[in-house]
Amino acid sequence: MSRTTFHVLSDLHLDTLSLTHRASVVKDACAVDARNLILAGDLVGDLIRPKNLSLYADFLQRMVDRFEAGRVFVLLGNHEYFGGTYEDVTMAAQGACDRAKAVLLKPSESFKVLRDDGTPAPLRLTGSTFWTHIPPSAEKLARSSIGDFAQIQGGWSVQRHNLQHQQDLAALRSHIERANACGEQLIVCTHHAPTSVNTSHPRFDRCPRNCAFASDALHQLSHEERCAIAAWVHGHTHYSGSQVLDGVRVVSNQRGYALEERAQETRFDPTFVLDVMSSCHGVPRGAQEVQQREQAVQPEHEDRHHEKDAQQLSPQLRSVLRSGDPLDADGVQYARDVPDRDPIPPQAAVWSAERQKGRQDVVPEDEGRHAGYQEDHGFCFFKNNAECYRTPRQVADALRIYLPRSVKRQRNTPLMLMPPPAPMPPPAPMPPLAPMPPLAPMPPLMLMPPPAPNEHCRAMRPRGEQNAKKSARIRIGSRFQSVQLVEEIRAHVGITVECGNLRARLASATLGGLMFELLDNDGKVQ
């Protein structure tokens, strides 16, 4: 059967990147081997601005030129609506897509999908921004912390946000009903995530703002409705992943902001390709989906942040995950598109779609073959129909994988659990403290007698006498320019001058001014 491939990109935020970074984004996208391209929103922000609209249109044209054999499907994210009204931004994006001959996805439309060889596939593709539902308990927090309600113009409120969610969900249900009537499956593309399960970074698991990033639309659909969905592509959360929830393949490949990309927080894979027909049967395609299978056998840790301390997968397990042949005709498929470079012979890894129906698969008798099926969080391995390992811990012990580095064990030795430590006895009560004796009263302070007066000691004179001594001589006048004038004044040294109640005697005359001595009523110098 021919493949039906899509390259998935979202949250590029081209308007925040440098010219060099933008060029690398275009180069990476053009190097991917896929027929179609899905752009799941947030390509730029403030699309209504002429500069960003020109950048948006240029990028679309480059992608259409690269994927000319297929189609380029485009979604509008919440950032495109910033700075403009809902209607104006939609109209501007439609004009850019029409000029580039790209397909702008709308809730009311769906499109036929072709296989890579050009033949029609029993698939249709639909999509929308798919706004989330904000519950009344989170309205105040959403209005104050989510930029949509402040940046989108034209009265974008929580009520309109929720109304648009209901309209998008109703349109999706109508597309599902039409696909079931035609015997087709549906590829759903949305910007917001359809579930909050493993679609955001683990540090946001209990964040009260998650209702603005993901809805529970996937879980609102019935089992029959979910069976009509071949794959669900989303963006917005800046956390890429590939998983199967309620029988639906949920994938995203989000680049995020430059700092997030450099820190590898978004888990972006520039080579990610979604093979829709393979994903319908659970076949891993690309590095992300193989990693998803590898994580399925990882033992549960009490703290998810300690997973970095685990060892790499053994070559045996990689061979189990990467290759194999069909065992029965019950819809079981295997990953044959990932090359097996390990020297170990291929072994079968069963990933059955029947698990989604709630029953366990029956592994056929096959002497000498390793087989297994997914059960909850791990694999059940039947080794030569003799040994059975049912829990992730048993799988890890059998294959010697993902053991913390702090665990010291020898080869082929089962892991021994230490008994729990004995409880500590309660501490003995402390004896009561003895009361402190009262402090003895302090003796009164002894004042030192004042020193005897000393008329020869200037420092012991009363302060008034010192000030009077300083004020007994008064200097008046400014610098004289004539020596002759000074000599004439010196001839009058000793004369007494009266000014009101003040009497003074001329003491000296210099070029710097005149110096007078103050006199008391008896004519003596003060």
UniProtKB/TrEMBL annotation:
Residues 283-316 are annotated as: Disordered. Residues 285-298 have a biased composition (Low complexity). InterPro entries: Calcineurin-like_PHP, Metallo-depent_PP-like. GO terms for molecular function: hydrolase activity. Residues 299-310 have a biased composition (Basic and acidic residues). It comes from the Eukaryota. Residues 5-239 form the Calcineurin-like phosphoesterase domain. PANTHER family: SER/THR PROTEIN PHOSPHATASE SUPERFAMILY (AFU_ORTHOLOGUE AFUA_1G14840), SER_THR PROTEIN PHOSPHATASE SUPERFAMILY (AFU_ORTHOLOGUE AFUA_1G14840). This is Calcineurin-like phosphoesterase domain-containing protein.
